[in-house]
């Protein structure tokens, strides 16, 4: 079975996908990151900010995640540079030892924003780790995954 690669040209060299003929449509994606904390540093962050010696954890993570989502094309080699119309975060406690970060990104473009939402959630989670690592190195970023996307050829929703 022969597979068709979208990121190599006829000479088998790496290339960016040509999206010039694709129509601009509204596209959105939401990614999730789950961070697990040891029992020794559990707290409830539902709707509340918490701080460490480095400062406000959730606010800093949201800023870092937003900046990262906007710079995705600088980090992932074949991502197109697109303007984001929206980049928002929801952060909540999941049980007593975990935090869920949701990053939702949208745009009107001819390519999707899945990678932007995944990068935003990832960097926000890494920022939480960085802000809290002095409390424990047993913090684990457990899961980073696309939850849903709309626009383009196919919609997707994780069940």
Name the features.
elongated, five-stranded antiparallel β-sheet, Alpha-Beta Plaits, two-stranded antiparallel ribbon, alpha+beta, 159 residues, single chain
Mind explaining what this structure looks like?
By secondary structure, the chain is an alpha+beta fold. It has one domain (about 25-150): Alpha-Beta Plaits, CATH 3.30.70. The chain has helices at about 55-70, 70-75, 115-130; strands at about 25-35, 50, 55, 85-95, 100-110, 140-150, 155. The strands form 2 sheets. A 5-stranded antiparallel beta sheet has the order 4-5-1-6-7, covered by helices on one side. It is elongated and about 55 Å long. The two termini are about 30 Å apart.
